[in-house]
């Protein structure tokens, strides 16, 4: 069945489980809005009053689901208004797929309304992981696949596709691609047994261990694995502000609050006095290592990616892959940790300080 480029984009989004599109209408977005209208029973369009709102809402979907939240805008100022949310998503490690309608190719970089070089602006590693102006209708589904994977592969972030109007309206015999099964393979990789055993040995040798939970470990499956691990080991836990809420009241005896860049909370003090830190999905933007690792602690990093390395952050053991599965594998072979009475006393003191701050 013949369709146009806008139909091809929407068909590909639906085939890969996209449920919501956040957008603010504009002239160059018209073909995509028409394509979305045709499939309104399969995908929900949420209209906002400013493109930044749409971008941040898409970031929220990305953070909650681990899959790219989708935002669409018109050209010119519409797309430029996405710079802040896309840069934030990339910094915070949240997958977002942004698609902008653009002027026709023969009007690009001419004195034509709403016609700045958007893909050039977006093609900055601090804003997006991938930014491209699409040149051919037939490759739209291919480019969507590459953009989608770029947004979730490694450290997640924002990606941007700029699609000229004639490409959106161009006819194609291509069909939407389905690639979501590949994403499941990507997120299900686990560390080898040797690495898992090495991590267990480091944890068992510690006298004052602590867990820092970051945003990349804030998923539902991660939360269950973290709770099981804490229940078995008894290791105290602190969270970054972006990972707050992973532990229930059942774990009050293990919880020492949040940590932050100002380094003025009881959780910060606990980390400072530890000898081993288990970082779970920690994006160092959330909690700079130079704040808490001045004395070069032993670090076991359990994460989906290798974060920024510097003199303050070189993990002794890197357990790379699916956080929940790797943590469960560690828990399966580790015994209850023998936490010293001195460390238990320090934990209680920090918890008392935490209660005084509430």
From TrEMBL:
The Thiamine pyrophosphate enzyme N-terminal TPP-binding domain, residue ranges: 3-114
Source taxon at top rank: Bacteria
GO cellular-component term (any): acetolactate synthase complex
Domain annotation Thiamine pyrophosphate enzyme central: ranges: 198-329
Gene Ontology MF term list: acetolactate synthase activity; flavin adenine dinucleotide binding; magnesium ion binding; thiamine pyrophosphate binding
PANTHER family according to UniProt: ACETOLACTATE SYNTHASE, THIAMINE PYROPHOSPHATE ENZYMES
Family the UniProt entry places it in: Belongs to the TPP enzyme family.
Protein's name in the database: Acetolactate synthase, catabolic
